[in-house]
Amino acid sequence: MQEVTTAWLQSIEALKDVPADQLQWMISQSRHYLLQPGDFLFRAGEPITGTHIVISGKLRIHQRQEEIIRFEAKTISGYLPFSRGKVAPVFGEAMEACQIMTFPIEKARELISTHYELTQALVHFMTTRVREFTSLQLQNEKMLALGKLSAGLAHELNNPAAAVVRGAVTLKKHLQMEPETFKKIVSIRMNEADVDIVSNRMFEVLRQPEKPKLSLMERSAKEDELVEWLDEHAVENAMELAENFVEFGFNTGDLDAFKAHIPAPYISPIFNWINANLVTEKMVTDIEEASNRIATLVKSVKTFTHMDQGHAKQLTDIHTGIENTLAMLQHKLRKGNITVTLHADHSLPQIKALVGELNQVWTNLIDNAVDAMEGMPQGELEIRTEPDNTCVKVTITDNGPGIPPENINRVFEPFFTTKEIGKGTGLGLDIVNQIIRQHHGNVKVQSQPGRTQFFVSLPING
Q1: For residue 279, what are the domain limits?
Q2: What is the Cα–Cα distance from 349 to 131, expressed in whole angstroms?
Q3: Which of 20, 265, 277, 435 shows the greatest Cβ crowding within 10 Å of its Cβ?
């Protein structure tokens, strides 16, 4: 094994100013040993044994097989003086042969009382390490949440985008057929009053705000009636016209009203011209609706991520964030056959908050609820907002199997998760707790089989 000297320890940035006699005391009190590839320096859930310094080799730090970071030579980890942490939250596994120096936790009291500079250096180093580690985990959790949202969002955007493309292609083909219709129309001779009546009646139909909603049997019966009328009057493309006319609410009475102002030889070309306008209107409407869906989703994403906004607290309506989160998770909700009920008290005042951070709270809580209902024939998600003294209260309820009593007090612990590997880091609810506390609020949980509730209270002037 490599000899560990005070000079070698002082080559570590965090220990460079520690007196040599204190470092020598640390060397003499420490355990020096080797780890083989696959050996564990520490395991999640097991007691922390001391302060570890990697002399040589590499360790992989992971949680549920998901790598978090790697430790190399001159890395310090493990026990933090004055820390209340007694149990390792993650695994430290040797990737290759490693030499380790471990200062035992049993010597911590003597360290703190007799070696001030060494204690100060370790506290400073380990505090920085915890801050960096927490920041890394927060970023990993955000990326995990973004991955979940982006998968559903891609599906949500793909459907209307495909509808726009499909509608544009169909409309293009339809317009290429218009010259034939135009030839027939320009040869028609009608007085100006009749032209106005026919034209106005057609545009009245196009301007109808809602199309009739018919059952399959009702639609079929009406189509048969119109096909019979159109065939009686020798109108070309009777079947196609009947389908479109029924969709726009036409009946035989409407056709009679049109016929009263159309000379007999021109009934077929004029009805086909009307149909061409209805088809064009339908295609344009479909494209418009799909485009609006895309615009709505993009707006939701922009609001959700709080793009183009500052990072200071600002007044916001909590319902905006909740509704945008539901929009972002719409695909996952539909896929899980989950019914969402939102009881929103829109009389609630706006609250002062970090909007992007709160959106992460709603995402984590709603996503957890959806995961809890996975496999159920009918999931039910209920979200309620209401006043709570000087706070606004948000309650998120699901009808999943519930949280076991032995886990209920651990759900907000960092790295605690019951999800399968790759589905969670165990930081989602810890982050929720941190964000809510940052807003001077609180989050609580109640659970029993078939009903789990998370209660979030946020001060209005937080």
Answers
A1: 166-289
A2: 35
A3: 435
* Listed residues 97, 114, 131: the one ending a domain: 114
Record the pTM: 0.49
Question: Which residue's entry shows tokens 């992460």?
Answer: 360
Would you say residue 299 lies in a domain?
no
Do 96 and 201 share a domain, yes or no? no
Residues 320, 202, single domain; the answer is no
Mean pLDDT of the chain: 83
Do 345 and 415 lie in a common domain? yes
Residue 91's pLDDT is 92
Higher-confidence position of 382 and 159: 382
Domain C-terminal end among 263, 289, 315:
289
The pLDDT value given to residue 351:
93
The confidence score (pLDDT) of residue 279 equals: 82
Burial of residue 303, with CB atoms counted within 10 A of its CB: 0-12 exposed, 13-18 middle, 19 or more buried: buried
- For the chain, how many structural domains are there in total? 3
Count of CB atoms within 10 A of residue 417's CB?
22
Verify that 333 and 438 share a domain, yes or no.
yes
**247: pLDDT confidence band, cut at 50, 70 and 90?**
confident
Q: Where are the alpha helices (DSSP H) in 306-379?
A: 318-328, 330-335, 355-372
Q: How far apart are CA 363 and CA 141, in angstroms?
A: 11
- For residue 427, report the phi and psi dihedrals to the nearest 5 degrees: -110, -10
Same domain? For 257 and 326 the reply is no
Q: 58 — phi, psi (to 5°)?
A: -135, 140
For residues 89 and 20, membership in a common domain is answered with yes
Alpha carbon distance 150, 157 (integer Å): 10
Stronger pLDDT, 434 or 194, i.e. the higher one: 434
For residue 425, give the 3-state DSSP assignment: coil
* Residue 422: predicted pLDDT: 46
**Is the predicted pLDDT of residue 366 greater than 50, yes or no?**
yes
190 with 329, same domain: the answer is no
Q: Please check whether residues 264 and 361 belong to one and the same domain.
A: no
In sign, the C-alpha dihedral spanning 409, 414, 420, 423 is positive
Query: Which long-range contacts does 187-194 make (Cβ < 8 Å, 24+ apart)?
Result: 188/263, 188/266, 188/269, 188/270, 189/263, 189/266, 190/261, 190/262, 190/263, 190/266, 194/261, 194/262
Confidence check: pLDDT of 312 > 90? no
Is pLDDT larger for residue 241 or for residue 186?
241
